[in-house]
Amino acid sequence: MVLNYREAVEYIYEIPKFTSKNDLAFTGMLLERLGSPQENKKVLHVAGTNGKGSVCAYLSSILQTAGKRTGLFTSPHLVDINERFRIDGEPVDDETFLSCFTSVHSVINELMDEGHPHPTFFEVLFAMGMVIFKKEKVEYVILETGLGGRLDATNVIENPLATVITSIGLDHTEILGDTIEKITAEKAGIMKKGVPVIYEGSEEAAEKVILARSEELGSPPYRVAKDNLETERTTNKQVDFWLKCGYYEYVRFHISNIAPYQALNAALAVRTIEAIDGQHEMTAEIVKKGIENAYWPGRMEEVRPGVFLDGAHNEQGIKGFAKTVRGLEGMGSTTLLFSAVMEKNFEEMIRTICMEVPFDRVIVTTLNNKRAVKAEMLAEIFSKYTEREIIVVPAVDEAYEKAEELTDSHGVLFCIGSLYLVGEIKAIIRRKEND
Fold this sequence. Notes:
Strand order of the largest sheet: 4-3-2-5-1-6-7-8
Mean pLDDT: 93
Shape: globular
Radius of gyration: 21 Å
Number of helices: 15
Distance between the termini: 36 Å
Largest sheet: 8 strands, mixed
Low-confidence stretches: none
Oligomer: single chain
């Protein structure tokens, strides 16, 4: 059966209803049947709790600036599923998406005819990504893990150029473990023998696990932590930072984003380039330009004047958001638009917001998602921790409209709590622009 693009996307979205996770041997077999498209690629493999996507975006931008052809595989997408596969920073077109889906779908049917299970949603997308990157003849693949690392489908990659572990926090504890050490062990599962590991070392418990694994595997460690950086917000539009370690020490880097925490993510990318570029062909100017030109949607992204979307969706992310907001100057009145999904510790997120974020009012809404927390429940929790104004607007489009209404010309609107919320709002803005 031949599917068109729309039917292919619908098919992919239906996958979670009729399959469950398979082991890495199965993913390896799937790729082998597809001609092992992952081979002969220079892979940078990235895991962590927060910052994975941003680090991937910085890496892709630096490599593009150096004239390298890159393939970027990330998740989730915000509006269109094509966003998960980027060639030189741009999402693949529908024709490429469909062509590669068709190849993968054909192999899936063969495997199922032999009695094998259907791949999961993520396994299908990962396989598609590898087929796309082979078809597009990319040199470098920047690969973001889905969940965890050790058992993640992306961990079939055997010989990456480098592995990167971003900041670790308590997220997905029901799957990855209930301590920093357990979660780090899962993330560190992507490390490979003799392959450099670049890691965020601000959390001592996480660093101990990574260094022990590094010693065991003979993997050269490259540390980046808050004490390795000097950071300065020069305006409400940008952040500058200097590294106090490594080859690019005391180069002044400029980030086109208002969030200071992005300096740590950018620094991880810089040290990754240092680890893979032993001849230093990528000059400081190339790396600086790559960092400055990087764009990653939904992370303190100013989509309209005074309207910011931030995908902070766990306590660690919310703390980073809070620090960013506290450092801004001359904001005027501040409105928050908040929503969340059930598997997150949304009460702790809300408590942190109420304790640490200066806001005048919050609008709570319900995501268009089966795992969404109802707006009324969110409002009830906010009322436990603050006496500031709480407005319940269940539909996201109406909530966004209300939030814009309440944000005057000198005010600021922050939309936070879930990447799903970011995606829904970006879709709303796109529809408005196309009307």
